[in-house]
Design goal:
By secondary structure, the chain is mostly helical. It has two domains: about 70 residues; about 210 residues, Orthogonal Bundle (MetI-like fold), CATH 1.10.3720. It is built from 14 helices and no strands. Helix 6 crosses helix 8.
Length: about 300
């Protein structure tokens, strides 16, 4: 297992290099001068030229990219913000806790509700509960996040005054943004759980377990659910990675100073080091989540452990 984890961590290196190259290329060819955005419209040509020379923006593309990779690998330095002059690492460390809190809370909501809903829908296929659950799942997958967030704010903050509409300084403040962020993941996990359970409960060993006289709850939870967990865990891991990188709209709507909002403001100001560092950080987080999911496979299905 240690060998496998080490190999997976090493395999992250080309992934991160590839992501860095793509992001670096896109930002390089994007119209707009970061020097002009940082210094403002009143900056003179000499000031702009000095800024570009100091930040290395006049160097060729490959030289800039090579210097970025060298500083990141050898010094752990992924740049400094053009606007605040603070290191990108410190900016991300300050913003990540808020993003992580609403993401972990959102995936817990999606799992706690989605898995039971999917199990019951599969066991009671074509029932009224199944039909209603699938309708809500389709609505949840199709509903725009920004519209849902604004609707929840109008309902629970403006009219009912039950929950705060912004910030993340208390548990009650986490409810609305986490619920907004969890909606699509909840719908996807519900549908995947139902699909996986329907495939499993039709297998011969499920009929054998019932023929032995075991309780229906034991058949469903111990035999069926455990064998249906692989695709569910896979989808949950993918969704958690998406939540970590896809909280941009949610953080903007609820005024949460997370990584997504930091990147949006950096894109507007052409603060390229923050954008590059944020994308790399999200790519690493998503890859690390996938590694954890692969490790969980071994404990869920013993056959995978034999293969490893």
């Amino acid at each position: 297992m240690l060998r496998y984890v080490t190999w997976r961590l090493i395999s992250l290196i080309p992934v991160l290099v590839g992501v860095a190259f793509i992001v670096f290329t896109l930002l390089y060819i994007t119209p707009g001068d970061p020097a002009r955005m940082v210094l403002g419209d009143l900056a003179t040509d000499d000031m702009i030229a000095e800024f570009r020379e100091r930040e290395g923006l006049n160097d060729p593309f490959l030289l800039q990219f090579g210097r970025y990779l060298y500083n990141a690998a050898a010094k752990g330095d992924i740049g400094k913000s053009y606007m605040t002059k603070a290191s990108v690492s410190s900016e991300l460390r300050a913003s990540f806790p808020d993003t992580f809190k609403i993401s972990i809370f959102a995936i817990l909501i999606a799992l706690i509700l989605g898995v039971p809903f999917g199990i019951v829908s599969a066991v009671k296929q074509y029932s009224i509960f199944d039909s209603i659950t699938m309708v809500f799942a389709m609505v949840g997958m199709s509903m725009p996040v920004f519209w849902l967030g604004l609707l929840l704010i109008l309902t629970f903050s403006v009219h009912l005054r039950w929950l705060p509409s912004s910030g993340l300084d208390s548990f009650s403040a986490m409810i609305l943004p986490s619920a907004t962020l969890a909606t699509q993941s909840l719908a996807i996990i519900t549908r995947m759980t139902r699909s996986s359970m329907l495939e499993v409960i039709r297998q011969d060993y499920i009929r054998t377990a019932r023929a032995k006289g075991q309780r229906e709850s034991v058949v469903i939870l111990r035999h069926a659910l455990r064998n249906a967990m692989i695709p569910i865990v896979t989808v949950a891991g993918v969704q958690f990675g998406v939540l970590l990188g896809g909280a941009v709209l949610t953080e903007s709507i609820f005024s949460i100073p997370g990584v997504g909002r930091l990147m949006v403001s950096s894109i507007k100001m052409r603060d390229y080091p923050i954008v590059q560092g944020g994308v790399l950080f999200i790519a690493f987080a998503a890859s690390f989540v996938n590694l954890i999911v692969d490790i969980l496979y071994v404990y869920i299905d013993p056959r995978i452990k034999v293969q490893r």
